Amino acid sequence: DVKVTQSSRYLVKRTGEKVFLECVQDMDHENMFWYRQDPGLGLRLIYFSYDVKMKEKGDIPEGYSVSREKKERFSLILESASTNQTSMYLCASGHRGLLNTEAFFGQGTRLTVV
Amino acid sequence: QKEVEQDPGPLSVPEGAIVSLNCTYSNSAFQYFMWYRQYSRKGPELLMYTYSSGNKEDGRFTAQVDKSSKYISLFIRDSQPSDSATYLCAMIKNTDKLIFGTGTRLQVFP
What we know:
The structure holds two protein chains of two kinds. By secondary structure, chain A is an all-beta fold.
């Protein structure tokens, strides 16, 4: 079974803190994605990576950065957390050439910034 | 304008009803079309994907794509309470960027 594991299910952080969300996949997938999910807005792509050390901005990259030092791990970094970054964060992975395969999602991390 | 539009619902139907879920899109570069299902407090899971215009059937589920109208649909026959979930349409262009609709929340009551 494909497994995409996110390090935390729930996280509470203070405004201004640097926050790290970790994601690990065990299927040797080339592509990894970070989305945030908000009511009425659906899943919005923050960043995605198609190879180690490679990254591409999604639709809402502002306030976020990412790191992909190893193929199986993709980290999302909130440089200085703000209350408008309170959201559900979902990590996904898939083989290159998503036209012929699917993206697998983790369980999500619900982040609250106070 | 969003690239992918989807009515958020909620949609509430009785058990056994036929459900129709829809998305429209604006970019003709989208090539592949998918439907994901997301149960409460879980990540989305792929339900079906299609490429060309036309229908694709899998059990009680039928996915329909009309590229000329930029319109995709998911039909659920004989809906069950276990189908209660949020259904998200998703699309891919020629890169691997997966773009989602907002999701439609479906409730099937016994």
